[in-house]
Write a structure and sequence with these properties.
Catalase HpII,  Chain A, domain 1; 8 helices; 9 strands; globular
Length: 357
């Protein structure tokens, strides 16, 4: 199959709706409900989404040499090695026992990336935020707001109820998968498989500018030490931090290797910018390796690194280069809401949040 040429980026690939500002304001108000409830209950403010971390890793990202021009874009235009921090998480805004099985998240902060910065993007890092699914649960921020309001109402509900509900939803999702149906909505409510985060493939889900082009990103495990764990279920019964304990035990003795991959948009109708619920078919727009991420054996819950990364840093897709500008309605909404969450954490905890030097 001959691939179509990559679509050239231009500002008119986005369709900005007049109501987006109002929706973002309501998102911030709803996130405030989650943030304040969790902070009041625990005495400590956490992120509005992906609040619970399961591992903080330090490693390197090496950009491939001699990439073809369509891939040698933005931070990937120059080969070389960068230090990275990785944060493994699940997507809830409150700290739940791991028996409530939720989609996995992976945030990647790449250090010392030169180039023109996005507005208000402090420091010199490029951030990527991904989940272990290739589509988003809502087509736009307005629809996502409706789901978020439901989740906000359950933030302080009894944990044992959520654990029981998660078990039921896992069964429902497994039945749907057996007939070839995936349900991101059910997964987001606790019906995701309770799998090992180290074996998962992660996706940006939403599109980004890729220099002259448009792309989605992926981070896929390639070393046997990671792929041997793909799909492995973790029994979290009676173990509220089972994922953290599992990752910590495993990373003590293995080197992890992932491929950082890029999926170039080749048809704006079949690979739309504004609707992240539509999967970009990999036969028509394949993922291609542009870099390698390596993590040596380490303590993934080192108190020093947890304090430095989990408490004193934030991850935002709007922290990075103009060449990797986030695109689409969901990404535009994430700009103010991520900043709002970080400011709440900083204010409540009295703890400054900053980019690494």
């Amino acid at each position: 199959m001959t691939l179509a040429a990559p679509v050239r980026y231009s500002p008119d690939v986005e369709d900005v709706k007049p109501s987006e500002g109002q929706t973002i304001e309501q998102l911030n108000q709803t996130f405030d409900t989650i943030l304040q409830t969790v902070a009041d209950d625990s005495g400590h403010a956490v992120r509005a989404v992906h609040a619970k971390a399961h591992g903080i890793l330090e490693g390197t990202l090496t950009v491939e040499a001699d990439l073809p021009l369509e891939l040698a874009q933005g931070m990937f235009a120059t080969s070389g090695e960068h230090k990275v921090f990785m944060r493994l998480s699940t997507n809830a805004g409150d700290i739940l026992p791991d028996a409530v099985s939720l989609p996995r998240g992976l945030a990647l902060k790449v250090l010392d990336v030169p180039g023109e910065r996005l507005p208000d993007a402090e420091g010199t890092t490029q951030n990527f935020i991904m989940v272990n699914g290739n589509v988003f649960q809502a087509p736009d921020a307005e629809k996502f707001l409706g789901s978020l309001k439901l989740l906000a109402k359950t933030t302080d509900r009894i944990e044992r109820v959520k654990v029981a509900a998660s078990s039921v939803l896992r069964g429902v999702n497994k039945a749907l998968q057996a007939v070839g149906v995936e349900s991101p909505a059910i997964a987001s409510l606790g019906g995701a498989p309770n799998v090992d985060p180290l074996g998962e493939t992660y996706y940006s889900v939403t599109p980004f500018r890729y220099g002259d082009h448009i792309a989605k990103f992926s981070l896929a495990p390639v070393s046997h030490s990671l792929t041997a764990r793909t799909g492995n279920s973790i029994d979290a019964t009676g173990r509220p931090n089972a994922l953290r304990e599992t990752v910590q035990s495993e990373m003590q003795g293995i080197e992890g290797v992932w491929e950082f991959r890029v999926q170039l948009c080749r048809d704006l109708k079949r690979q739309p910018v504004e609707d992240p619920t539509i999967e970009w078919n990999e036969d028509e727009a394949p993922f291609v390796k542009v870099a390698t991420v390596r993590v040596q054996p380490q303590d993934s819950w080192s108190s020093e690194r947890v304090d430095a990364v989990d408490e004193h840093m934030r991850f935002s897709i709007w922290t990075g280069l103009v060449a990797h500008r986030p695109l689409g309605n969901i990404n535009r909404a994430r700009n103010a809401t991520y900043q709002h969450s970080a400011e709440f954490r900083q204010r409540f905890n009295g703890c400054p949040i900053h980019e690494p030097a």
